[in-house]
Structures are given as structure tokens and as C-alpha cells.
Design goal:
It is a multi-pass membrane protein. About 75% of the residues lie in helices and about 0% in strands. By secondary structure, the chain is an all-alpha fold. The protein folds into two domains: about 10-385, Sodium/glucose cotransporter (Up-down Bundle); about 385-485, no CATH class. The longest helix has about 60 residues, at about 155-215. The protein is globular. It starts with 7 loop residues before the first helix and ends with a helix.
């Protein structure tokens, strides 16, 4: 593995930044009661929600994985983000109001309000396991690999422990308020640092990208043939939206930031703000990844593209800022996962077990749970390098588990006839199908791209949910309050928003987002 040196000035900048983040997170923490600790008192304005959501979504997978994928296959990986922006508009209009009005702490709790406890426990358990052993451990491992480039003799486990302590030091004492306030700083540094990197990247290899674009090279096209191994065009329509809903609308780590907003309108504007920020990733992640082909040809591991760009293109002094930006993405993701996972366990399991637990008791349990989670993730993280194939299987299984969950949420919101028995049967059948797919995918679907398999799984799960529901009585009326879509309420809201000046109406920004998304697809088609 190639190693790089870092100046004392850059090292000081990084250390000062890390110290500041810890101090800032602790200074802005709230842990007086469960609502303050887990949902920041439901008091966040739209711009805080948006920045926090963006910082939490830019994980090691996004920053390192997407730039590596762009290096390997071109900008088509940006389709996940662009489809995600369309999903954000759908989420803001239809699902977000129900989440906030129902007063939930966790996304699995919504399943209980709409269906029953079985669905809540199942989904919460899936989320907790994935958050600890895939997301949190993955973030720690990615951070350790970057530090190993600079300090090759440093012990991998020691680096992981240090990063775990950094994220835990402000997230555990201060809860979601600490995480969100730290993410505000991290989001700004991440955006500015990424813009800085893009500038130096274009300065040294911009002509290469312009030549690719002028020649119509496949690497700078978002719309690919059906036979494309990266993102076949049909997958953008039938597969990506389903996975996008799971990521943006069913993901506790991200939705928890939206639940902290002080109103439905603030939450909506925050999500749409995140959409505009996510659009920037085309220019600060995907395109630089393509340019890196010209600057660093022949890299054995595409995932090392982003660290190579940071360490080789940025001059002394600014390198410290860029490393701080890179570490921002990793630590903000880790703190987000840590807080959301402790919320899941505390509210979905402990609070159900001990219904008389005080608000302060729940906060204490949340802090203890966070400690257990970070220790488990830190212990597992070094194993990722040894069992990469298992993780690939696990990631693939998650992509099979997502469609049944999305089917349960969509049918639950838009169909008042489906009930708890149907939802639970759909989730369990989805799990059974995922296990079968894990071992017999090639025999069933051959070499079909997984994005094209997703709609089959969604359809099967949806049919099971509906048919089983029809075998049992309709849900009681209370199960449909603040959990199902109402056209009457949507029309009333549209009429009320007409009276607002255009820039205060979230509909205006939703339309702008959708138009920009279409334009980008046209330009890079």
C-alpha cells in the first residue's frame, strides 16, 4: 500500500479540528429528557435539518465508494443520488407529514402504529444488526484505512478505537443535539473541502473530462444500455426508487434528523435543502472520480481514489482542511449511526419492556446502549478486511430485504385495507425470499442486474401483504389516524400554500429540484 507524508501544519489543523468538534458537540448537547436526547427536543429549523441530513448521508460508502465506482465505471453511480433526490420530493410530500404528526421516535414505531408490534420488532432488529456490524463498523474501518496511508506503522485496531472514542465522546453525553450540531460544522467543512478538491482536480485534469464529454464517452453518461453492468437504464425506473425509499424514508439514521424538526413545513424544507446539496455530489464526488482515471491510472483498488486525490492534489496547509473534511464524513456518519441505533434499542425494546421507565431512565439506557454499540462495532471493524466476501453477501441480502419493507410502508400508507397480519406475513416472506436469493440467485435470475430483480421482490411482497390482509378483518379506525394518506388533507394543504409567496412554499422548491434532476439526466444522457 502506497503511503504519504503529512506536514506538521496539516497535522495540527486536523487535531485542532477534532478537538473543536468534540467541544462543540458537548457544548450543544441536550440530555435532560428522552425527547431532548433522542430527538433534540423536536426544535430544529429547516436549514439545520438539511445540513445534518446531508452530513449523515455522506457516509464512507458515498465519499469513498462512489468516487471509486466513478473511477471504475464512470458517473453512472450518481444515478443513485439523482434518483434519491426524486425520492426526497416524494418523501417530503407524502410520508414525512405522517411521521411527524404520529409523534414517533423511530421508524419501526410507525409500523406498530399502523400495523402491530411484530412488524416493529422485526424491522427494528434488522436495523440494529445492520447499523452495528455493517454501517458503524464500516465507517470505522474506512477511517482507519485512510489513517494507515499516512501512518503505515500505526495499529489498525488502535486507530479504530481512537475514532470510536472521538465519535462517542460527544454523541453519547449529548444525544441527537450534539450529533446534529457537530454535523452542521462537518457539513460545511465537507462541502467547502470537496469544492476545494474539485477545483484542484479540474485544474490538473479538467481537459480530460471535457474531451470525454465532447466525444460522448460512455463513462460520462448517466443513461446506460440495458446490458450495462453498472446501472442499466431500466434499473433507474424500477429498482433505484425502491432502494431510494428504503434509504431516505425508512432509514432511522437519516429520518431521525427529520423527526427533530419543529414542524412539518420545516422538515419538508430541510429534506428539499438536502436534495440541492446532494445534487452537488455530481461535481464534488462523481466527476472528480472520472478525472482521477487520468491523474492516477491503474490503481488496483478503486476505493483508494478519493484518499489519493486528497493526499496528492491538495497543497500543504489546505491538506489539513481537506483531511478534516474527509474525517467529517466518517465521524458524522458514525455519530448518526450511534445515536439512531441506541434510539432504536431504547424506544423499540427497552421502553416496551419497562413501560414505567421515566424519561431520565430512558436517557441512561440510551447512553449505556451507545457504549455497547460502539464497543461492538470497534471490535468487529478489523474483521471486515478478513471477511470481505461475507460483507458482500450481507450487503446483497440487505438489498433483498429492502423491497418487502418498502412494500409494507407504501401499502400501509396508501391502502387502508391492509392489516398487521398481512404486513408481518409480507416481511417474513421477504426474509425467506432473501435467504433463498442469497444461495440460488443465479439459478432463478441468472446474471440479471440486482436493480432489475428488486421490482419482482417488491411485487411478490406486496401481493402477500394484500392477500393475507384480505383473509382477516379490516384494521380498526385508530390504526389509520396519522398513518395513512388523505387526499382531502393534501388538497387542503395545496390550497393553503397558494397564499404563500413562492419562495416560502415548499412546492416551488420541489418543482425546481425535479426540473434540475431531469435537466441533468438530459445533459448527461
Amino acid at each position: 500500500m502506497e503511503t504519504f507524508s503529512i506536514s506538521n501544519l496539516d497535522l495540527v489543523i486536523v487535531l485542532v479540528y477534532l478537538a473543536f468538534i468534540i467541544w462543540w458537540g458537548l457544548k450543544n448537547g441536550k440530555s435532560s429528557d428522552s425527547q431532548s436526547y433522542f430527538l433534540a427536543g423536536r426544535s430544529m429549523p429547516w436549514w439545520v435539518v438539511g445540513l445534518s441530513l446531508f452530513a449523515a448521508s455522506i457516509s464512507s460508502t458515498t465519499l469513498i465508494g462512489q468516487s471509486g465506482d466513478a473511477y471504475h465505471t464512470g458517473i453512472a453511480v450518481f444515478n443513485y443520488n439523482l434518483t434519491g433526490i426524486v425520492v426526497m420530493v416524494f418523501f417530503a410530500v407524502f410520508l414525512l407529514p405522517l411521521y411527524i404528526k404520529s409523534g414517533i421516535f423511530t421508524i419501526p414505531e410507525f409500523l406498530e402504529k399502523r400495523f402491530d408490534r411484530r412488524s416493529r420488532y422485526y424491522f427494528s432488529a434488522i436495523c440494529i444488526i445492520g447499523n452495528i456490524f455493517l454501517d458503524a463498523a464500516g465507517a470505522l474501518y474506512a477511517a482507519a484505512l485512510i489513517i494507515k496511508l499516512i501512518l503505515p506503522d500505526a495499529d489498525l485496531q488502535l486507530i479504530i478505537i481512537v475514532f470510536a472514542i472521538i465519535a462517542a465522546s460527544y454523541t453519547i453525553p449529548g444525544g441527537l443535539s450534539s450529533a446534529i450540531n457537530a454535523e452542521l460544522i462537518q457539513a460545511v467543512i465537507l462541502i467547502l473541502g470537496s469544492i476545494l478538491l474539485t477545483f484542484y482536480c479540474f485544474q490538473q485534469g479538467g481537459d480530460y473530462f471535457y474531451q470525454l464529454f465532447a466525444s460522448g464517452d460512455i463513462s460520462v453518461k448517466l443513461i446506460r444500455p440495458l446490458t450495462d453492468t453498472a446501472t442499466p437504464w431500466l434499473g433507474l425506473i424500477v429498482g433505484m426508487p425502491v432502494l431510494g425509499i428504503y434509504f431516505w424514508a425508512n432509514n432511522q439514521t437519516l429520518v431521525q434528523r427529520v423527526l427533530s424538526s419543529k414542524s412539518v413545513d420545516e422538515g419538508r424544507k430541510g429534506v428539499l435543502f438536502t436534495g440541492f446539496l446532494t445534487m452537488l455530489t455530481l461535481f464534488i464526488i462523481a466527476i472528480p472520480g472520472v478525472i482521477a482515471r487520468h491523474l492516477f491510472p491503474g490503481l488496483e483498488k478503486p476505493d483508494m481514489v478519493y484518499p489519493n486525490m486528497v493526499l496528492q492534489l491538495i497543497p500543504v496547509g489546505l491538506l489539513g482542511i481537506m483531511l478534516a473534511a474527509l474525517l467529517s464524513a466518517l465521524t458524522s456518519t458514525l455519530s448518526a449511526i450511534l445515536n439512531s441505533t441506541s434510539t432504536l434499542f431504547t424506544m423499540d425494546f427497552y421502553a416496551q419492556y419497562n413501560k414505567n421507565a421515566s424519561s431520565q431512565k430512558l436517557v441512561i439506557i440510551g447512553k449505556i446502549t451507545s457504549c455497547v454499540i460502539i464497543v461492538a462495532a470497534a471490535l468487529w471493524a478489523p474483521q471486515i478486511g478478513k471477511f470481505g466476501s461475507l460483507l458482500k453477501y450481507y450487503q446483497e441480502m440487505l438489498s433483498y430485504i429492502a423491497p418487502p419493507v418498502v412494500a409494507a410502508f407504501l401499502l400501509g400508507v396508501f391502502n387502508k385495507r391492509v392489516n398487521g397480519n398481512g404486513a408481518f406475513a409480507g416481511l417474513l416472506s421477504g426474509l425467506a425470499i432473501a435467504v433463498v436469493m442469497l444461495f440460488y440467485k443465479n439459478k432463478i435470475f441468472g446474471d440479471m442486474h440486482f436493480l432489475l430483480i428488486v421490482p419482482f421482490l417488491l411485487t411478490v411482497s406486496g401481493i402477500v401483504i394484500y392477500l393475507v390482509s384480505m383473509c382477516y378483518p379490516k384494521p380498526v379506525a385508530e390504526k389509520l389516524v396519522d398513518t395513512t394518506f388523505s387526499m382531502r388533507e393534501l388538497k387542503a394543504e395545496f390550497r393553503a400554500n397558494r397564499a404563500l409567496v413562492w419562495y416560502k412554499n415548499y412546492h416551488s422548491w420541489a418543482i425546481v429540484l425535479l426540473v434540475l434532476s431531469v435537466l441533468i439526466w438530459i445533459i448527461f444522457s
